[in-house]
Amino acid sequence: MTNQDWLWPTLKTALYDDLEKIQKLSGGWDAVIFSGDLVQGGDKAEFDKLNFVLDDLWAKFAELNCSPDLIVLPGNHDLKRPPLNSVFRTLKRWWDETEVQSEFFQDDANEYRASVATIFEQYSTWLETSGERKFNLKSGVTGLLPGDQSIIITKNGLRIGLITLNSTWLQFDPDEYKGLLHVDAKQLMAITNNDPDRWCAQNDLNLLITHQPPDWLHERSLEYWHSEINPPGRFAAHIYGHVHTASARLGAQGGSATRIDLQGISTFGLNKLGDKIDRAHGYSAVRFQEQPSSLQIWPRKLHPAVGGGYNIGSDNGFKLDVEQSFTIPLTIKTATRREEPETLSDIPHVGSFHESLRGLEADISSAPGHANVRTVEQKLIMDALRDDRVCWLVAEWGLGEDGFINTIKSKIDPNAPIYKIDLSEFSNRSQFSELLKQTIGLNFERLCQLLAEVGSSFLLLDNVMQIPTPSDSGENAEFETLANVVLEYCPAIKIVLRSHRPPIATRWPIVQISALDEADLQAYVCDHPDGSIFSATPSTIAQLHRYTEGIPSRIDQALRELQVVSLSELVSSDVDFPEKNAGFVKAPDALVLAIQQLAQSVDAATQREFSLLKVLSLFPRGESLGRIQRFYSTSKFHASVATELRSKGLIEVVSQQVLGIDAMDEPEKKLKVGLPARECIWDLLQKDEPYELNRRTAEIYFGPNWHSGQFKPPRSYRFDSPHCPPSDIINANTILVRLLKEAIAVGQKNGIDRVLGLSENYIRAIARGDHYASAAALCTDLLPLIPSHGFEEKLADISAEYAGALRMNGDHQKAKTVIEGILDYPFPKPKKQSVLLDLAFCHNSLVEIREAKDLASQIRAINPHSASGLQAEALLIELAEEDPSRLEKLHELEARSRKQDANVVAGNIALFRAKHADGDPDTVRQILAPLINSKKASDYYNRTRAVVELAEISLHNGDPLTHAERIHLVRAYHFVFNEQMPRLFDRCHDALWRDFIERGDLSNLLILFRHSSLRWRLRGQERKERKYLKKLRAYLNDELSKSAAKIEKEFTYFMVRATHYNHEANPNTLIQQSADTYD
Fold first, then answer.
1. Residue 289 forms beta bridges with which residues?
2. Among 183, 363, 393, 1038, which one is most buried in terms of CB atoms within 10 A?
3. Which CATH superfamily is domain 5-80+120-338 in?
4. DSSP string covering 991-1016
5. Are strands 294-304 and 282-289 parallel, antiparallel or unpaired?
6. What is the DSSP code string of 677-746?
7. The CATH homologous superfamily of the domain defined by 349-513
8. What is the reported pTM?
9. Do residues 659 and 977 lie in contact, with contact meaning Cβ atoms separated by under 8 Å?
10. For residues 736 and 773, is the Cβ–Cβ distance under 8 A?
């Protein structure tokens, strides 16, 4: 497309007009074949443009009431021409290099195959990430080279087989290659299970597609082409392009079946003939007629119009009939399954089984974003389906189960169909059989017969709604007996039972999926067709995760919206309490119906259920029943109401538990409503009811006088405590954003001031609790909402808090930029000192020492005796590296700071002194003792740093950690994991890792790896993850068998991540590597 964009608008108009005309003659479009040269130079930008061109074309097809499949393969313009290194120079001599010819197709590990793969990298990436675009890109069994595929299309009861073979892999530079290319029989064998004749015999029509014509093959390759790849009778036609002219050739020898070669004209692009440019554009419409077997072809070509311009019409280079077409009779056999039956058991029932089962086909499209997420769950379900052919899939409403199931199918058997039966109204087998008759005209017995005829297939038993209690588990047996009958009758089928609650006492495996965490969200975005427009960093991923809550359908929508708005605009939009019909993702019909039934019921008990559901919808991270029992002062919510909602799959119970390493306390249980259900509930509320309910939640979280700007939360909400659960903080952040949006909508300045005052007090509280990531997240949401006029003081104050939180989270450059934007604001002196101190620390971290010293001097000049003044003095002493007495001066300043109750300053000084104590554990322990033993909450962050520092030095000197030190270190890990402090997190991980290794604690070692891996993946630190995978492999060799029963989930995660980097690895090779890989 490079330098040819000007061609498309005129051609597009002519093409779209002609598509309408030709459809009236040929009928609707079932498939579109592009036989290569989709772009000009193989660049990513060109493939991005291609997406929009194809989206637009398929929108035109939609106007014509059709949605054809798209089949593609690469041409010589779709590869990226490589520099001619030794590998490619050798490949240019292909026909002289017999050893290379032998090595090339043996395995994909050789340098020649690997190099060829690289030149198609952008094409392959586009292919993998385009499954969810508007155009229906069809994929199938992939082969040895990019573009090699076998694809099955079923239309109107017919099976159409398409074979695409890469013929262009040797044409990687601009030289002339006619008569020099090669297509190997191994390419065909790899995608037809080594039996192309049998593969073709299953289909009604088979088409072979390449980019180059046969005469571009080398004479030796052409011999194999005619004998091993395209012998007479195997394919109805060979379709190709490349040379910008259209033709149809028929030929037969010695009474064999006729070979048909169809050469397509270029739909878009230029053909240069010497100095002349030839606009040779066009396409062909082809219709397959089963009886009599024939191809009717309408060749179309671009013609110059009289007076200027162009139009597309018949290509009169062909001899055409009155319908502007020509017909080619086919002499090949149709599928063997249509031959006359020989025995009674071979006689088919009326209509093909494909036609009879069409009503059960699941509408589950390709979902590339799901390919590399939930990898542990993927492995578990694939193991279950391989071993038992059946499993339960448990998920909340709207968690992208279809994409997950499609990913599993594509990895197990991409060509197998998926059938779906809705069990939401299931009561017993006889009722179910009657329901089948009403919906698809089949009873249960006939259904089993047809499914057995299909062969390899998947059956989704969907919406298993009524999961019984332990005292009433008979219904489980009904479901499983039903599935077991199908399994026994259909030996090639695999069954998934999908429910929103785990079954009781099942005999089959259960796989439960949840919303994506941030690491999986990053992988989902990277693989998503629309993900290229999103700049994925830990900060932007965290914002997107807060907005979407990790729900795939919401992520899909957000990525579409990010094509027209910025991320900050998106996350500040009304994700909470949206306007009715605001265009959000449609919830599942069964979920909508279940909530509507609650809302419209006149039964008092059911009304209480809906009331509790409304209240819980206000808390994105859930809330404990005890805290909201008296949400309405006139009545109380009892546990039985929550139990009933849970039995209906409308709420889930989540635990606020630690990461799993030596968990000490029983986790608190919270009741949570998923986002799809919350949106359904909000849609049923009266106009002002959501904000009325939110004001009541503000009373619960911030105290009864919140509306005057006062911040006095109840004792149960200790936002200034380091141990405040993240769920409470996320809920509080959401409540404040809603309050501000409501105040801005009302438009009263006093109301906005009060909410901003409340927000400031709250932000300072969570900052005192060292929840800097949450403080920064709230500021990110609030600042774009605050009106710029009349609120300058609030903007400056919240920006200052934002900068401090960013600095504490390690984002020094961004914090510096924020502070520089508010330096001119006339803060009071104490606040001015605090802002300048944050800026001085930023300069110091960015190794801008002179600027840091200058600012420290300015701070001391304002007030040398304040906490900020003392810290500035400490900074100046620390930066005076040439001063031999600086540690003595710091010791004196630490004592003075403690006397003035400037404990944070004293802690910072103690940590600096410990770092420069020459690694002596006793000296370090003595210096850090006041900090580690401190009970003051304001010291928690520094206490965490001290715990890590002491653990590092003790372990480095060979001293084992005491039990108390280990508990402190585990708590430190929990804290830095939640607060996302990268450097401190890595140090804490390293110390725990060493301690667990020395204690032989494999269970905790694997748990530690699983959680740390998530953080590294999110930060793009795959090298660090690989480093610990290598260590873990060596250690597992000796220790796995001792603890395997306790660590199944963690070991599965390790295996998944290991195979992510080493696809050829298996469990045995992973745990038998030499121990010398451990360092």
1. 294
2. 183
3. Metallo-dependent phosphatases (3.60.21.10)
4. HHHHHHHHHT-HHHHHHHHHHHHHHH
5. antiparallel
6. HHHHHHHHS-TTHHHHHHHHHHHHHH-TTGGGT-----TT--TTSTTS-HHHHHHHHHHHHHHHHHHHHH
7. P-loop containing nucleotide triphosphate hydrolases (3.40.50.300)
8. 0.60
9. yes
10. no
The DSSP 8-state label assigned to residue 309 in this structure reads -
How many Å apart are CA 489 and CA 445, to the nearest integer? 10
Taking the C-alpha atoms of residue 597 and residue 295, their distance in angstroms, rounded to an integer, is 54
Question: Which element (helix H / strand E) includes 548?
Answer: helix 538-548
* Cα(47)–Cα(120) distance, integer angstroms: 12
pLDDT of residue 999: 87
Place of tokens 């009349």: 790
Q: What is the pLDDT of residue 754?
A: 94
> What amino acid occupies position 590?
A
679-681-684 Cα angle (round to 5): 110
Domain ranges of the chain: 5-80+120-338, 349-513, 518-571, 1000-1079
Rounded distance, CA 358 to CA 449, Å?
A: 15
Beta bridge partners of 314: 300
d(CA 685, CA 687): 6
The 8-class DSSP code of residue 227 comes to: I
In sequence order, what E strands does 271-396 have?
271-273, 276-278, 282-289, 294-304, 310-314, 326-329, 390-395
Q: Which amino acid is at 903?
A: N
Residue 780 token pair: 């990110």
- Strands (DSSP E) contained in 180-337 are 205-209, 237-240, 247-251, 259-263, 271-273, 276-278, 282-289, 294-304, 310-314, 326-329
- Spatial CB neighbours of 1050, under 8 Å, sequence gap ≥ 6: 1003, 1006, 1007, 1009, 1010
Phi, psi of 170 (to 5 degrees): -90, -10
Burial class of residue 1013, CB neighbours in 10 A (0-12, 13-18, 19+): buried
> Which ranges in 769-845 belong to alpha helices (H)?
772-782, 792-808, 812-820, 829-845
What pLDDT does residue 1071 have? 29
For residues 246 and 235, what is the distance between their CA atoms, to the nearest angstrom?
A: 20
Phi, psi of 236, deg, nearest 5: -65, -35
CB hemisphere CA count around 607 (13 angstroms): 6
Residue with tokens 């009325």: 692
Q: Look at residue 1061 in the predicted model and tell me its pLDDT.
A: 53
> Which token pair is 212?
């180059």
pLDDT at 106: 80
Note the pLDDT of residue 339: 42
**pLDDT profile of the chain (1079 residues), mean per 10:** 55 85 83 89 89 89 88 92 90 90 82 91 88 78 91 84 94 92 93 88 91 92 90 90 76 67 71 49 83 83 74 83 83 50 36 61 78 89 91 86 89 88 71 66 76 87 64 57 83 90 83 89 88 83 87 87 84 60 62 86 90 93 91 88 87 64 60 87 85 92 88 88 89 94 91 94 93 92 91 95 93 95 95 96 94 96 95 94 92 93 92 84 87 72 90 88 88 84 90 90 85 82 84 68 50 59 38 27
Structure tokens at 656: 């606020």
What is the distance of C-alpha 933 from the center of its chain? Answer: 44
